[in-house]
Amino acid sequence: MPFKSLPNFLNYVLWADAASCLACGLLQVALPGSLQEWLGLPAALLTGTGVFLLSYGAIVAFLAARLRGPSPIIWILVAGNIAWAVACFYLLLGGGMQLTTLGEVYVAVQAFTVAALAQLQYIGMRRGRAQLA
């Protein structure tokens, strides 16, 4: 049975989204100075987006725990992930930051990860089995 036909497909995708946000958020909040040096991103940006990612990840985890069928709120998550991917690509294409090579990799991985999560959330919603309990 293909993974996307599993009954809890969207739940798994939401848990992956939550986990990736919480991991990146924790990293960025815990090590902004080191990451600034390694990635070429300002510490304030890393801290601010880290706090956002921690909050967003907690909300997505809450939603994943309560998901039962179609819910319009998941479309907001899809749009948010697309917006995050666009912002990452903007940084990669010269968004005014002097990223290191590691910084380019970090931002590119985030861009592709959230774009993939948005696509998977879209697939889960199109299957029509996402409703909050």
How would you describe this structure to a colleague?
The protein is mainly α and 133 residues long. The protein has one domain (7-126). It contains 5 helices and no strands. The radius of gyration is 16 Å and the shape is elongated. The mean pLDDT is 89.
Give the class from helix and strand content and strand pairing. Answer: mainly alpha
Radius of gyration: 16 Å
Give the helix level as a range of percent: over 70%
Quick one: biggest sheet?
A: none
Which descriptors would you attach to this protein?
75% helix, elongated, mainly alpha, 5 helices, 133 residues
Short description:
With 133 residues, the chain is an all-alpha fold.
Write the layout of secondary structure elements.
Blueprint: H1 9-30, H2 32-39, H3 43-66, H4 73-92, H5 101-126
